[in-house]
Write a structure and sequence with these properties.
single chain; seven-stranded mixed beta sheet; two-stranded antiparallel ribbon; disordered C terminus
Length: 319
């Protein structure tokens, strides 16, 4: 037995309070009233109707197909509004795909999005199907737009994903989030799928947002945003993380079941102090971020107009 025991955890070694951080951040940038995150009291719950080994499983992602014409979307790319997508898309699960997350507010200081498997676990799900851990993988995966408009998600995007899952005779769905708003998006989609008879589990890194919305099942990894499917370039953590999600899908006893992965991101929790933390920013840095955010908003508005996507009238200030 060791003579020394681990000391107490650092005060900040807790899940990052993303709702609080984003409110303070955008108010510091000068955007006024904070964004109103979705919050539900009642949470639907659909147990699996058959063993997972024979269930058809779908994958829902907020990652975007790579657009060569849209500028830098590679590892460590800055936020890129040109890479966003505004309507649900689907892809063939039997093929490899080049999906990126440069269009969302991931943690760009502590991760680089260099490993697609850390945010898009299609290859891991294929292996799970090949070994019989799950039944057949649905023929398509689905991309959910990262939409600040909760009404658009509820009225347009979530029903479209549900319709496609029904077309594919899906029994269960795994939904993988990236940025703060991504977590709200997939949580709202999961709720509709669950009410419609499809069991779900959300894989995410923003625990407070998903639990605030209210979902049946959450596999929480205490990692920087953009790594909900495992640590990058870590072939042990990625299948381990997926297996945890599958176990939550199988064994959750009731709605609002959250299981936290035991895997740490690093030996130090100090990375948790940085994301959108205005207490660690100079006035000059805040002004720079405001100017950049205004620029990206203008780009996104132009793209929405070009593709004919209108946002609904719910409060959708900065988030």
């Amino acid at each position: 037995m060791s003579d020394s025991a681990p000391g107490p955890a650092a005060p900040h070694d807790v899940p990052i309070p993303y709702i609080e951080r984003t409110r303070s951040y955008y108010q510091a940038l000068g955007y006024g009233a904070p964004y109103e995150w979705a919050h539900c009291v009642e949470v639907p719950f659909q147990p699996l109707t058959q063993p997972l080994a024979v269930a058809r499983v779908a994958l829902v992602t907020t990652a975007a197909p790579h657009k060569p014409e849209a500028g830098d979307q590679g590892p460590a790319a800055p936020y890129n509004s040109k890479a966003k997508f505004y309507t649900v898309y689907s892809g063939d699960t039997s093929l490899d795909h080049d999906l990126r997350i440069s269009h969302v507010a991931i943690d760009r200081k502590h991760t680089t999005a260099e490993d697609q498997a850390s945010y898009f676990p299609l290859a891991a799900l294929r292996r799970a199907a090949a070994t019989g851990r799950i039944g057949p993988l649905a023929p398509r995966f689905h991309g959910a737009p990262t939409n600040r408009s909760q009404r658009t998600t509820l009225d347009v995007d979530a029903p479209e994903i549900l319709a496609r899952c029904r077309q594919d005779a899906v029994d269960a769905a795994i939904l993988v989030a990236n940025c703060p708003v991504c977590h709200q998006t997939v949580a709202l989609v999961a709720r509709l799928l669950e009410r419609s008879g499809i069991a779900t589990v959300v894989m995410g890194c923003a625990k407070d947002i998903v639990e605030h919305v209210g979902v049946p099942r959450l596999l929480f990894s205490d990692f920087p945003l953009g790594n909900a499917a495992g640590r990058p370039k870590d072939p042990q953590s990625q299948p381990f993380t997926l297996e945890l999600a599958l176990k939550v899908l199988e064994t959750a006893p009731a709605a609002r079941t959250t299981v936290q992965s035991p895997l740490p991101w690093s030996s130090s929790p100090d990375w948790k102090l940085d994301f959108q933390n205005v207490a660690r920013m100079s006035p000059e840095e805040i002004a720079r971020r405001r100017a950049e955010f205004d620029k990206q908003k203008a780009v996104a508005k132009t793209i929405r107009e070009e593709v004919g996507v209108q946002r609904s009238g719910d409060k959708e200030k900065a988030a």
